[in-house]
UniProtKB/TrEMBL annotation, chain A:
<dbReference type="Pfam" id="PF00146">
    <property type="entry name" value="NADHdh"/>
</dbReference>
<comment type="similarity">
    <text>Belongs to the complex I subunit 1 family.</text>
</comment>
<feature type="compositionally biased region" description="Basic and acidic residues">
    <location>
        <begin position="390"/>
        <end position="402"/>
    </location>
</feature>
<feature type="transmembrane region" description="Helical">
    <location>
        <begin position="299"/>
        <end position="319"/>
    </location>
</feature>
<keyword id="KW-0472">Membrane</keyword>
<keyword id="KW-0812">Transmembrane</keyword>
<keyword id="KW-0874">Quinone</keyword>
<comment type="subunit">
    <text>NDH-1 is composed of 14 different subunits. Subunits NuoA, H, J, K, L, M, N constitute the membrane sector of the complex.</text>
</comment>
<keyword id="KW-1278">Translocase</keyword>
From TrEMBL, chain B:
<keyword id="KW-1003">Cell membrane</keyword>
<keyword id="KW-1133">Transmembrane helix</keyword>
<dbReference type="Pfam" id="PF00499">
    <property type="entry name" value="Oxidored_q3"/>
</dbReference>
<feature type="transmembrane region" description="Helical">
    <location>
        <begin position="40"/>
        <end position="56"/>
    </location>
</feature>
<feature type="transmembrane region" description="Helical">
    <location>
        <begin position="68"/>
        <end position="90"/>
    </location>
</feature>
<feature type="compositionally biased region" description="Low complexity">
    <location>
        <begin position="254"/>
        <end position="264"/>
    </location>
</feature>
<comment type="function">
    <text>NDH-1 shuttles electrons from NADH, via FMN and iron-sulfur (Fe-S) centers, to quinones in the respiratory chain. Couples the redox reaction to proton translocation (for every two electrons transferred, four hydrogen ions are translocated across the cytoplasmic membrane), and thus conserves the redox energy in a proton gradient.</text>
</comment>
<keyword id="KW-0812">Transmembrane</keyword>
<feature type="region of interest" description="Disordered">
    <location>
        <begin position="212"/>
        <end position="272"/>
    </location>
</feature>
Length: 432, 272
């Protein structure tokens, strides 16, 4: 993880770090941390404001212009609160857990390319707008995410309390399950780009952004990234209605703020990975060669990157404002029985297609009849598949009139059930 | 130690001498700490430090995979089990096999002797670094993939089949035949409705009382009739006898008929 060591090793990496000095790396690292911290302040405001607009209320609008300073005020309040340590806590691990969370969440942006090479205004010294890159950069992102889970797990365990422990156990199961699907969806990008280096992957999207040809993988990634960051509708580790607030129940003040910070940085992380791998990275949303490629040079690409990043962040907020939390068993069934098999199947299909194209020399034109044929067969099978006759509820029961007062309470008839004829009117009364 | 013609850079030396002692400390901690989770943490530290050393030796793929696979998945499963076993679980020191401790000690000493002998007699060929064009392909994932899926494809397949067999075996061994029909949300709801005449309450239980002068968790709420609602206090507190009577308030005083019962209600209504 030391950029200086890796600076020279660059087979399969597009960005050129050969001119990099240790001072440039330090400056970039500091800039990234500053960017992340200010982005988190902005993200909290952004989320509250957008959710408020979706719920037809104004949202924070009191402190600063448009309420922008609200999250700053909240952060100050958090810092000044009393720092509690519960009696049954394992003190060392209790303190260590939020540190692990924040530290690991800060690691990811080291390999995210903000733009191509940029030159400083008053010099001709150019440097990639990226802290570092190496041949397995995307795997490094997965590794940082995997380590970050330890913060949640240990925080829940070290609190010595039931709800945090349950939250931590849930989170472990959840993140392990959804990381599998996420990793599998990233594999299809590796296959297409032929590389795991972030700058190379961005470079491979010159013609077309991967989210179009790899749409199934993109959908799987988007679902699993929401699961990975414990956001609604997948926020089961901290489900307020069931677990108070899960693994962070016993945390207060600065330690709580660290968890909070890590959660929002993780949102930025997965959004940045989505942008880099699927949405063209820093590339302008115009066809290649538009205006002679002027939109993809210099400092401008950083703007495209940020626009896309906040587009994905908006999606996060939108999902949160729209969907309800899943039940835990439904959530795990969805992960293991739907997402992972679909992701596996997609990788196999993609690998076969790539093998046919690159090794066997099959062209796109030759693929068209195969795809059309497969679609025809699929539609035909679906067409002639015997329709499953669902028995109407209550059909298996005998058509005896129901005793509405059987349980001591008057109960209206279920669909298909029949009430006995009313004595009062001498007419038959039908159940709905 | 440094062979001729090959220099280790200053940064790498510093990195090694900072990380290696910490790794040894953590490895010793793994043996000597009392709580299982702390031991797991020591192991995680050793694994991550080892990954850093791999990366420093120009094997980023190996280092990153070490973190993803071992630290992220295997160790996490260990921790998962440790946490489920119990927060305060400590090892049992009784011997289940007679003489197990002595046998273990003997085998351990034997292993240490063999390893020590091998390490002491090992002759290192002169280090070549990566100057010769990285023949093993550890630095470049594409070269590594060619080696793995070209030269060793049969071994890879065999390992894959073994792992899948093990996973399916675990599923089969832990599989239990379903004896009762599966409980769905619908069937649970129906059962509860059916049990309604037996005193089951469908709605959430009332929350405890909130008064100005008491900690609310252990104080029963007052019903609309001024009576205390014993179910509003957690069942655990009621079993332990830790509930408190609700303080007499204006709502209770105003209904003169129930005034006498409020003080003694919780003791008589303990239904645990």
């Amino acid at each position: 993880m030391n950029p200086v060591i890796l600076a020279a090793a660059a087979p399969g990496v597009t960005a050129d770090f050969s001119q990099e000095t240790i001072w440039a790396s330090i400056v970039k690292a500091v800039l990234i941390v500053v960017f992340l911290l200010t982005s988190v302040l902005f993200a909290i405001w952004f989320e509250r404001k957008v959710v408020a607009r979706m719920q037809v209320r104004p949202g924070p609008n009191w402190h600063g212009p448009f309420g922008l300073l609200q999250s700053l005020a909240d952060a100050m309040k958090l810092l000044l609160k009393e720092d509690l340590t519960v009696t049954r806590a394992d003190r060392f691990v209790y303190l260590l857990a939020p540190m692990i969370s924040v530290f690991c969440s800060l690691l990811v942006f080291a390999v995210i390319p903000f733009g191509p090479s940029v030159s400083f205004f008053w010099t001709d010294w150019t440097t990639p707008a990226q802290l570092t890159d190496f041949p397995v950069a995307v795997l490094y992102v997965l590794a940082a995410a995997a380590l970050g889970v330890y913060g949640i797990v240990l925080g829940g365990w070290a609190s010595g309390s039931t709800y945090p422990l349950l939250g931590a156990v849930r989170s472990t199961a959840q993140v392990i399950s959804y990381e599998l699907a996420m990793g599998l969806s990233l594999v299809s990008v590796f296959i297409m780009a032929g590389s795991m280096s972030t700058s190379q992957i961005v470079d491979s999207q010159t013609q077309i952004w991967w989210f179009i040809p790899l749409a199934p993988a993109f959908v799987i990634y988007v679902i699993s990234m929401v699961g990975e960051t414990n956001r609604l509708p997948f926020d089961l580790p901290e489900a307020e209605g069931e677990l108070v607030s899960g693994y962070m129940t016993e945390y207060s003040s600065m330690k709580f703020a660290w968890f909070f910070l890590a959660e929002y940085i993780n949102m930025l992380n997965v959004s940045a990975v989505a942008v880099t791998l699927f949405l063209g990275g820093w590339r302008a949303p115009v066809p290649d060669g538009f205006l002679g490629g002027a939109l993809n040079e210099g400092w401008l690409p950083i703007l495209w990157f940020l626009v896309k990043l906040w587009g994905v962040m908006f999606f996060f907020v939108w999902v949160r404002g729209t969907l309800l939390r899943l039940r835990y068993d439904q959530f795990m069934i969805f992960g293991w029985k739907v997402l992972i098999p679909v992701a596996l199947g997609w990788v196999v299909v993609l690998a076969v297609v790539q093998w046919l194209q690159r090794v066997q020399g099959v062209t796109y034109q030759q693929f068209i009849p195969v795809i059309v044929g497969a679609a025809v067969v699929f539609i035909a099978v679906m067409w002639f598949w015997p329709e499953k006759k669902e028995a109407p509820p209550g059909a298996d029961q005998e058509k005896e009139p129901v005793d509405a007062f059987a349980g001591g309470f008057p109960v209206p008839p279920l669909p298909g059930e029949k009430l006995p004829p009313s004595k009062r009117f001498g007419k038959e009364v039908h159940g709905e | 130690m440094t062979p001729t013609g090959f220099e280790i850079s200053g940064g790498e030396t510093v990195l090694f001498w900072v990380i290696a002692p910490l790794m040894v400390l953590a490895a010793l901690g793994l043996l000597f700490v009392k709580r299982a989770v702390h031991a797991a943490m020591c192991l995680v530290f050793v694994m991550v430090s080892m990954a850093i050393l791999y990366i420093a030796q120009e094997a980023p793929f190996l280092g990153v995979v070490q973190v993803v696979v071992y630290t992220g998945a295997v160790m996490m499963l260990f921790l998962f089990v440790l946490m489920l076993v119990g927060v305060d679980a400590s090892d049992s020191l009784t011997e289940t096999i007679r003489g197990q401790r002595w046998i273990g000690l003997l085998i351990g000493i034997g292993l240490a002797a063999i390893l020590g002998g091998v390490v002491a007699n090992a002759a290192f060929p002169p280090a070549r670094g990566l100057e010769g064009g990285d023949p093993g392909g550890v630095a470049n994932p594409q070269a590594l993939a060619r080696v793995l899926f070209g030269d060793y494809v049969l071994a890879m397949e065999a390992v894959g089949v073994l792992l899948v067999t093990a996973a399916v075996g675990a599923l089969v061994l832990t599989h239990r035949r379903r004896l009762a029909p599966k409980q769905t949300q619908e069937s649970v709801a129906e059962a509860r409705i059916k049990a309604l005449p037996d005193g089951v309450i469908l709605t959430p239980l009332p929350s405890p009382g909130v008064y100005a002068r008491s900690n609310a968790m252990d104080t029963p709420a007052l019903g609309p009739d001024g009576e205390q609602v014993p179910q509003s206090v957690s069942r655990v507190l009621r079993i332990r006898g830790q509930e408190r009577p609700a303080p007499p308030g204006p709502a209770v005083v105003s209904t003169s008929s129930t005034r006498g019962t409020t003080g003694s209600a919780p003791e008589s209504e303990k239904d645990a």
